Amino acid sequence: MASTVWKGFISFGLITIPVRLFAAARTERVSFNQIHQVCGGRIKQQTYCPQCERVVERSELVKGYEVEKDRYVIVNDEDVKAIAPASSDTMEILEFVKADGIDPIYYDSSYFMVPEEAGKKAYHLLLETMRKSGYSAIAKIAMHQREYTVVVRPHADGLLLHTMFYPEEVREVPEFRRDENVSVKPQEVALAEKLVEGLAADFDPSKYHDEYQVKMQQMIEAKKEGLVVGAEAPKKRAPVIDLMQALQKSLGELPRKPASSQPSAEAEKESNVTSIKKASSGKRAPRTAHG
Questions:
Q1: Is 61:55 a contact under the CB 8 Å cutoff?
Q2: Does any domain span residue 219?
């Protein structure tokens, strides 16, 4: 049974709905233990106090914040509870916004919002209203010893909640910027658009899997049986010199789509050829090192 991450209320005007939050996703990966190579035993980490020169038990530990070199302020659970904001048990909807107006860079973690029995009708009223209006809700919630700005959005099965990064938490990287000195030609864009259309499909998450983790498991099983694991040769990638040539070749290597949802293979081929001829009819782009 899933564990409750947060329990409280979501407030919508004068309507208060009791809800619970459950983690919607989690990272799965192969994990390793630290092993002593000499004897093959698993390493155990201990908490050591250099001042007392001994290993200490967890029951002896408290939280401390360093205010200056080697000087700490001790903070206990009662101190934390005393300053807990109202959003610790009630998330008040502050405003409604269109989902496409939120830059995905701000999204952090995802949670399922499930109503308590007493709040089911009000919960579904909010769900249906948001679904029909196309709006998502912005609220605040305190959990894990911090207050988050969150977005609540309608889903087919209920309301989803996403914690968000604050603007000051989104990094600024000078190298991440549009280079105004670089330009592309219309015929290059035309071919690139055709390539995008050829690879376009409805999003289906079940098609994608972590192949690296699968290979990791296979490698572990092989080593368990005493087998030698062969290394996979990496693909060699050469820099693109001629964009037009690369785009034309890419179009020719597009996988064929089912006839039920796409034009016939011959019609698609003729369409690609026509597009290539039209795009190539202008002045040929000069050779360039960027791409």
A1: no
A2: no
CATH code, domain carrying 165: 2.40.290.10
DSSP-derived pairing of the beta strands 48-49 and 54-55: antiparallel
**116 and 250 belong to one structural domain:** no
The residue with greater pLDDT, 111 or 179, is 111
Q: What integer best gives the mean pLDDT of the chain?
A: 85
User: Tokens standing for 155?
Assistant: 């889903």
b/e string for 165-190 if b means 16 or more Cβ within 10 A? eeeeeeeeeeeeeeeeeeeebebbeb
Helix (H) or strand (E) holding 186: helix 186-199
Angle at 275 between CA 272 and CA 280, to 5 degrees: 125
3-class DSSP state of 213? helix
Residue 69 has pLDDT above 80, yes or no: yes
Domains held by the chain: number: 2
Q: How many angstroms separate the CA atoms of 239 and 20, rounded?
A: 52
Instruction: Compute how many other C-beta atoms are within 10 angstroms of the C-beta atom of residue 269.
Output: 15
What three-state secondary structure class fits 66?
strand
Distance of CA 175 to CAs 127, 165, 172, 178, 179, Å?
Answer: 41, 21, 9, 9, 10
CA distance 195 to 253: 10
Residue 116 sits in the same domain as residue 163: yes
8 Å CB contact between 257 and 202:
no
Closest CA to 17 of 141, 161, 132, 125: 125
Residue at 3: amino acid letter: S
Per residue in 121-165, pLDDT tens?
A: 999 999 999 999 999 999 999 998 899 999 999 999 999 999 999
